[in-house]
Amino acid sequence: MQLSHAAFNDIRKVVHNLCGIVISDDKQYLIKTRLESIVKSNGLPSYEALVQRLAQPVSLLLQDQVIEAITTKETSFNRDGHPFDELRRTILAELAEQWVRRKATSMGIAPKIRIWCAAASTGQEVYSVTMAIADFLASRPGIALTLDDFSILASDISTNALAIARQGRYSAADLGRGITLDQRERYFRQDNEQDSQEDIDTRGEWIRSYHIPPEQRRTDDKGEVLTQMDGIVVQCGVIEARQVPHPGQPAIGQ
């Protein structure tokens, strides 16, 4: 199927508005590889017709198909290593100190420590954060802080990726990318021919996020961007959200 330069540019704009991904000038092959099957399966005669259909108000299902096809979903446990090392070494210690001070000055009551994992993909990094928290707490046995004092908000634009993340079932190949032997022994178990994680879970919720084009973004009276995501307002990284039950425990499937 022919992809004209004009249609390519139109699709680049549509993709950026849908999910914030920037497709460079030399990525025509990416569009053809990932979207041609969508064009055909929806009975559309051309990429130009795809652009026209995506512009219609009733095209939400088609928009989701494009988002799922164009997003890479690359992730792994303990991805890149050093962010999670830093989380264990300094960030959690600082958050714990703030939490203890706040509890001491608020009649023994302190809100949960809330962590937002944006672009959570299929969940490996979210569970890595939870394991880092568990590791930190195990290294500080005298601290008056438990896993129940943490809440993790995980968001991603891909509903398919979030569905996998909620289940928390990963293959041996997934575990081979980042999980240490110590972590596997401490946090995972084999259950009905599937490994499942029994000792930790996430203290938060999984939500779908939406990309808001700059021209549609709302700002407050200080000019700070406010982004609406499934009823949760995020202002400069500070999350104001209701507390909800945590999802199921992560597991490893074959």
What would you say this structure looks like, in words?
Helix content is 42%, strand content 15%. The chain is an alpha+beta fold and 254 residues long. The chain has 2 domains: 5-70, Chemotaxis Receptor Methyltransferase Cher, domain 1; 82-252, Rossmann fold (3-Layer(aba) Sandwich), CATH 3.40.50. The strands form 3 sheets. Strands 6-7-8-9 form a 4-stranded antiparallel sheet, with no helix packed on it. Strands 1-2-5 form a 3-stranded parallel sheet. It has a 3-stranded antiparallel sheet with strand order 3-4-10. The chain starts with a helix and ends with a strand. The model is unreliable at 216-254 (pLDDT under 50).
Q: Radius of gyration in whole Å, from Cα?
A: 21 Å
In order across it, which strands form the biggest sheet?
A: 6-7-8-9
The major pleated sheet works out as:
4 strands, antiparallel
Instruction: Give me the CATH architecture of the largest domain, please.
Output: 3-Layer(aba) Sandwich
Helix content: 40-55%
Q: What kind of assembly state do the chains in view correspond to?
A: single chain
- Helix and strand run: HHHHHEHEHHHEEEEEEEE
Q: Helix segment count?
A: 9
Question: What fold name goes in the CATH topology slot of the largest domain?
Answer: Rossmann fold
Number of strands: 10
Coarse shape: elongated
**Amino- and carboxy-terminal Cα gap:** 38 Å
Count of folded domains: 2
Mean pLDDT: 78
